[in-house]
Automatic annotation (TrEMBL):
Superkingdom, natural source: Bacteria
Taxonomic path: Bacteria, Pseudomonadati, Thermodesulfobacteriota, Desulfuromonadia, Geobacterales
Alphabetical keyword list: Activator, ATP-binding, DNA-binding, Nitrogen fixation, Nucleotide-binding, Phosphoprotein, Two-component regulatory system
One Pfam family linked to the record: Response_reg
Chain positions with 4-aspartylphosphate modification: 57
Sequence ranges assigned to domain Response regulatory in this UniProt record: 8-122
Record keyword Phosphoprotein present: yes
Protein name: DNA-binding transcriptional regulator NtrC
Single GO term (MF): DNA binding
GO biological-process terms attached to the record: phosphorelay signal transduction system; regulation of DNA-templated transcription
């Protein structure tokens, strides 16, 4: 079971048959699933069981889902809530946003969409758990967590030094190199480690709601804003706000981020009272933002505000012996979860690993090792590893040269569109790609 699976989910639904069907599905993906028939009972279960994520219907007797979300927000504001309903009235969506609901799923439920939503909103929960575990170990060894190759040593040195400061950090690197993981490690090493670490993927925010999500709003700021809501800048107060895919922010949002970072205050949407903040910013992008700034596609003044220090994470193919080190670490970690003895990597398997282009970087390597941990015997040799690589890449055969990154990406996008009948949002979820990035891929490949 991967880390995502080690979650406790509370599922609330008043219809018995649906409640049982969805409970069974959720138990296939998550470690513990607790079911409840109404909001009042669910609230008692929440107080007793302390679930990581709550999934609830809206229209229920005794206490509806919106009231349940409000009560949970008061008790544990960091617990994500996912609401589901057959009703399409946007007033429900606005109220859900008002109560800090993390996601909104329409009925009839698509199980894949539900599992993806729970996994997505649980990411900050898992990050906090990782940080707590790191603190319990008292001392974080970046070499063990990141690697020991010359290419990564500069990253380790920079991370250690900047962690003790309040400098803004810009982490750049290809998709899958571990930018969000490094940001969490830096926060865990910093004096702010006991304060919130809040992650937001800018490309995943709806354009009409992004300003309210980041900066909050006051009561009556827009239709349906029945109360004030704190934004993520304020939620991260005293801690760190990680802005992933910051290059996807619109010019207007870039301007407001710049003002907040420079002045340490901002106005919430519709507000006239300044909100003072003490929030460290770590931003990330898979683009070279200095080039974008010079081209005028990203604000140059914001670039320099975010880049007190730029850390460039090298791609896995440039990290030499880290490939074998990380492969063994992933095998050990996943085998432990599977309660089995880790397969031993043979020398020819290590050689094959070192010769791969790793277009998906560390994320791809971990995916390969998951498959290996599940199916390999006592040893993992080059022949068996080549079969795993071929099956995952969908085009490389045996020891042949794998497809290029462009070919793999285009093929994956095309296959996802076919599998979902051309439904773009479902295809993006199938590929585990943020929708904003998926749309850019469609434009790039003219699909």
């Amino acid at each position: 079971m991967d880390e995502r699976g080690r979650l406790k989910v509370l599922y609330v639904e008043d219809e018995p048959d649906l409640r049982e069907r969805i409970r069974i599905v959720l138990e296939m993906y998550f470690e513990t699933v607790i079911a409840s028939s109404d909001g009042k009972e669910a609230l008692a279960l929440f107080d007793r069981e302390h679930p990581d994520v709550v999934v609830s219907d809206i229209k229920m007797p005794i206490m509806d889902g919106l009231e349940l979300a409000r009560c949970i927000r008061e008790r544990a504001p960091e617990t994500p809530v996912v609401l589901s309903t057959a009703f399409t009235d946007t007033a429900y969506l606005l109220q859900a946003i008002e109560f800090g609901v993390s996601a909104y799923i329409r009925k009839p439920l698509d199980c894949r969409e539900l599992v993806a939503a729970v996994s997505r909103v649980a990411a900050p929960v898992l990050q906090r758990r990782e940080l707590e575990e790191a603190r319990r170990r008292e001392q974080v060894s970046l070499e063990l967590l990141l690697g020991e190759s010359p290419a990564i040593q500069r990253v380790i040195q920079q991370s250690r030094r900047v962690a003790e400061t309040d400098f803004s950090i810009l982490i750049q690197g290809e998709t899958g190199v571990g930018k969000s993981y490094l940001a969490a490690l830096i926060h865990g090493l910093s004096p702010r480690r006991d304060r919130p670490f809040v992650t937001v993927t800018v490309s995943s925010l709806a354009e009409s709601l992004v300003e309210s999500q980041l900066f909050g709003h006051v009561k009556g700021a827009f239709t349906g804003a029945q109360g004030a809501k704190r934004g993520l800048f304020e939620e991260a107060g005293g801690g760190t706000l990680f802005l992933d895919d910051v290059d996807c922010a619109s010019p207007a949002i870039q301007a407001k981020i710049l003002h907040a970072v420079e002045q340490k205050w901002f106005f919430p949407v519709g507000g006239t009272v300044k909100v003072q903040i003490d929030t460290r910013i770590i931003a990330a992008s898979n683009r070279d933002l200095l080039v974008d700034a010079k081209d005028g596609t990203f604000r140059e003044d914001l670039y320099y505000r975010l880049s007190d220090l730029v850390i460039t994470l090298p791609p896995l193919r440039e990290r030499g012996r880290d490939i074998a080190l990380l492969a063994r670490a992933f095998l050990n970690e996943i085998s432990l979860e599977l309660s089995r003895v880790p397969p031993r990597l043979t020398p020819d398997a290590i050689l094959l690993l070192s010769r791969q282009p790793w277009s998906g970087n560390v994320r791809e390597l971990k995916s390969v090792m998951k498959r290996a941990a599940l199916f390999a015997g006592e040893t993992l040799d080059a022949e068996e590893l080549a079969g795993i690589l071929s099956s995952l890449k969908g085009g490389a055969d045996g020891f042949g040269v794998p497809l290029t990154l462009d070919e793999l990406t285009r093929q994956a996008v095309q296959q996802a569109l076919v599998a979902t009948g051309g439904k773009k949002m479902e295809a993006a979820r199938l590929l585990d790609v943020e929708y904003g990035r998926f749309k850019r891929l469609l434009e790039r490949y003219r699909l």
